[in-house]
Fold each of these.
Amino acid sequence: MKHNSIMIKLWSGIIITILCILFMSMFFQTRFLYSFYFNEKVKEVEKIGQDIARALGRNEYNFNIPYVDAIKNVNDMIIVTDISGRITYITGSVDYKQGWVFGLKYLDDILDGEKIQDGNKMLKGLDSLIIGVPIKRSQEPLWDVKQKQLYENEIESRALQEIIGAVYIVTPLEPLETTIQAIKIQFLYIFIGAIIISSLIALLLSHSFSDPLIKINDAAKEIARGNYNTKIHLKSSREIITLGETINNLARQLSRVEQIRREFIANVSHELRTPLSYLKGYTEILIDGLAETDSDREKYLNIILEESERLRKMVDEILHLSQIEAGSIQLKLSSFSIDALIKRTIDKILPLAVKRDISIKYNKVDDDLLLCLADENRIKQVLINLLTNATKHSYDHSNILISSYRLNDRIYICVRDFGEGISEEDLPFIWDRFYTAGKSKDKSIEGIGLGLSIIKSIINAHGCDITVNSVKEEGTEFCFWLPSYAEN
């Protein structure tokens, strides 16, 4: 499996995303928990220190009475000092003794009546928290219980207080760190489990997503090799299924285009071979002097001329379409009467229709000249091609109907025949190059399938559109519109 495959990229992306989320969760969670537990520990120790300091301030304890009932943790160390920092009582440590000096760096804050908070390694070299609380002597009058409670709430009153020492409590932080470490270990197990589960899910998701794409890619390669019978059957999301159907439709379209291309090559080969054979054959007759009379020579020369003109027409059609699609032909816009142009075109095509007893009828609603703003020569070419096609595919003894009318600022022209029609299967391809549907009833007007492509290119070059409606065995109608001409 390639390292840059979409399956590996999807799997890696999902795993990295999950790991980032877990890592961030662990980082913020442990930081938050440590801060929370630490603050709670500070509050707890401060409360104990304040209880002891308050009791000492009221003379409820003397310095010889142990403070066992105030100690919540057997590992805590309690130190009581006087106003000069000399230890008057100590419990929980053998490293300090009564009468020693302690906490001189905190003494100024204590004398200002402030609490202190610091860290050290006083307890067996472990990280410890030290909390210091000043001892304030209370000159409490003899009040009733309610007044006493009010007094305790207002104990901060400076008039009734005098700082006589400090209470320091040192408590180890090891339990807190142990708790955080345990949480980290739990997160490690969660990491491992999440990686395993997410890996399986990521593999399934990436496989379900990449497998259809691999099938589509394989099908595209087959189409590129010319195998247009490739079919894709997918069971995936709606978007992937739609993409597969698009590839299938592309294969069908390319198959149709390939069929049209082959038909065109066959048609062109046939169309070119016939006039070239005539040219070669009659030219050899003239060169060899086999034409016995002047009338024979004239006849042969006329055939050569007709076949040469036929070849020129085919080449002109191909070059003309290429020039239009390349945009190298500039339209020469002018105002002209589409009514008059239709009548002239009918006169030109009528001899071809008369051969098969086909009548051409022109239906115009009123006497409007139907002035258009377009390239008259190009529109004439469009009409000739449409009427030629209509004659080509009409049944003998049938009719061709032409209608024109004005609607708002547009002039519409429709050409309808009652002939063989176009099948629903062929209809989407009629504008393609070299398309031919059926064979002409009159071999003299057989084409090579460029007429409709030229028509559509000319109409689109004017910024207009052309449509077609057809029913097999009933006939076909082409309609296009042009902008009407106005003086302003």
Amino acid sequence: MVDEYDVIVLGGGPAGENAAAYAIAGSTRTAAIVERELVGGECSYWACIPSKALLRPGHVLAQARAMDGVTASGLDVAPVLRRRDAFVHDHDDTSQVGWAHDNRIEVIRGTGRLSGPRRVEVDGRELRARHAVILATGTTAVIPDIAGLRAALPWISRDATNLHEVPGRVVVVGGGVVACEAATWLSALGAEVTMLVRGTSLLGASEPFARDAVAAGLVEAGVRVLFETEPVRVDRAEVRDTGEGWIHGGPVTVAVRRGGSAPDDRASDADAAEIVADEILVAAGRRPATAGLGLDNVGLPEGYVAVDDQLTAVGVDGDWLYAVGDVNHRVALTHMGKYQGRVCGDVIAARAEGQPTTGSRYAASADHGQVPQVVFTEPEVASIGLTEAAARTAGYAVRTIEQEIGVAGTSLARNDFRGRAKLVIDTASRTILGATLVGPDMGEQLHAATIAVVGRVPLDTLWHAVPAFPAAAEFWLRLLEGLRLPEG
């Protein structure tokens, strides 16, 4: 027998959940989500939610220490971890399954794979989709091919977000968002952290001043940041598979080479220095979770699944296969995956009902130069749209304004407020192409910039968006005043 649904989603993370819900909303259509782990996915249990639960206590402590009359001694690790566990429901997805049930979405436990057009196999059970199959399987952590690294059973991001004990000394391999955030909370929890960064800066896609601010913040917190440094050999005499978030054995010795050696020189490590730690955390990128997904059964190669702006898979006839979230390699952010899921679901619903899909609602336009992101380090980096370099590369004629953003509202919030912001302006349309805000709690200020960028709000109109006083948003007025001055 073949079980039929209108929509079948492979992967139960936020992107897949949103796609399923939107595809059947207000109709009699049916949907099923196939999930081999926990409904709610990486974000709910191993990424965004637990990482922010771990980061917030450190931010609160820093703010308290920056306030006269407030006594703050430090973090108590056990309650911090209990609070994290409460947010991930102790890895119990009952509430998420209940949400699916309430939205008429059946949850099918198991490993799904494409077995042909509109067909899915789940551990021997055959399913058929009348309208759509949506791939929402996400990505998995990459372990680089470094001598001894895999054998040492290093931590990956899942271990770091679900840690049950804090290593005394940690080596973090990587300089991106995951590495910087993990270094932030590990240091706040008392670990001695060393970061090994291949390049010359952290957060390579960010504005230079933002990269520098995060590096300075980490160093100020006691993190040792080594640029142009990479591991060439890892040794761990005592290796134990103790489980996720527990230290995986005895001390780790990491041989590193500094100075940006060529890849073909890495095998020779006679000149490498050594760092000894209690654990090594690898945050060096991710790969698509498509192995064994059966892409070859529908004529697609292994790897990321390319899609158009309606999230329809490129290279598959019939407008039945879609991909949302990290697996399509457009934007690896949960909120953008959910956004894609909403667009995808609307497209599927319209096609199922024979309606046109020509309106802006049916295209994931924000994926192109309108992506908001917050890096929850100390200080935070909040950004939307294009950096100056990206805008110039794209051919825009731009003007920028970059300045400190200490105003009454920010100064009242904490004694040591240090913040900086930058706007990238399209001189032809006099609208904002991108904004980067750096400082405490700048993530809470980002949506105003997002609306300005996505709405292409002219600067002359923004002049009449009066910020309340004395709130942190007053810095918007200062930025606009800076744009009134002659350039240079």
Amino acid sequence: MTDAAELDLPFFDYSAPDLTGEVYHRRLAETARHGWLAQAPLSYVVLDRESAEFFLRSRATAFPGPQIADLFGVTGGRLREQIDANIVNQTGERHRRLRSLVGPAFAPRAAGRWRPVMRGFLDGLWDPARTSCDAVEAFARPYPALTIAAVFGAPAADAPRLQAWSAWVQRQFDIRALAADLPAIERATAEVYAYVEDLLAARRDAPGDDLLSTLLAAEDEGDRLSRAECVNLVLNVMAGGIDTMQAQLAHALRLFAEHPDQWALLAAEPGRAARAVDEVLRFEPITPFTARVCLEPVEFRGVAFPAGAIVAVCAERANRDEGEEFDITAVREHRPLTFGAGAHYCLGANLARAELEEALAFLAPRMPGLALDGPPRLGGVEGIYGVESLPVRWRPPR
């Protein structure tokens, strides 16, 4: 058994300012050619599917949110409260209990019942007179926020605020943003806490068929869900379900604009949307690196990782074990690791899949000849890998 610190490992800097687009994919592929393990500024990085599955599923590891918060001096206030309460940072019985309460609201059937609402939002965003747009502004940004507002029973007019808050709160997972934008992240977190508390109060007076009413019913049962847990679960879903979905839909449209034959196939056969979503998730995960901290000494493939070691699980390399080509017709053996694996598999995965499927099935027949209308502006990969702008054009549909 060899200590990880004693290995001569290749270095991969996931905070490098030029690490985006094809540079990011190429640099990762070059690093992975040296083996399954690399050294990064604050962690180790694992670079194949087997190692990714191991660290994501191991009960000897956990998400290191509190440790990262300590590192950047986030020791108090509502941001630290949110980090400590975030379901991704929970383990054991408390984690199982919280998932059991909110999980049924995101089961496949429960997520599927929002599909007509999603189609309504897409229809409202579609302008048949257009043949070009910034796809982020036109579709990817407003659509997820409208959907989450509906799931919560919040007014549709609040969707832009929810989107802005989600973008800031999600930067708690971005080490560059924590270093540069901490006051803004803390301010957004305090604002969204106040909003959620007001929304819960309003929903208590007028319950409906939505997620908030479900959580409030669990709170009323006394020993199942505390008031603080209820507020934090709502905030988790709100923050986690908007910015990530915006990024994944924008990357999906970018990929199809770069692969016109695939878009034409989907336009001709919208029933391929589910397979297309699988391939988008596999090929361009918007959470390229998911951190895990070793709660105790961990051994894997003859390498010993000490307690406290942080490991970044690279979903991009794990997913691309099955190929470097974007092909919605290919049959893949494994499920993408974009939503994680194990006990912390993403709660909102079914809702996100439904949103993506509905968006692609709606847009493909209406945007024939989809192509880039200028260079996309891509974000960094150290947190949520987003798209800041995506100029596209298409032919008028027949």
